[in-house]
Design goal:
Length: 61
């Protein structure tokens, strides 16, 4: 027979860690340097990505 793996229940703090601030609009933005030039518009852009949830926002310069 196989080994028995105990299931560990996650508490509510561990389950929602880092997501509650983003849900309220308090993201942790950092510059994402993979994409810096918009080919269609021909402009330099700055892509910001949230470290906690991964959403992105774009600002054209």
């Amino acid at each position: 027979m196989g080994d028995v793996i105990p299931f560990r229940k996650r508490d509510s703090k561990e389950k929602t860690r880092g997501k509650t601030l983003c849900r309220e609009g308090f993201h942790k933005w950092s510059v994402w340097k993979d994409k810096q030039f918009d080919v269609k518009a021909g402009k330099l852009i700055t892509v910001y990505r949230c470290d906690r949830c991964g959403t992105t926002k774009v600002e054209a310069h």
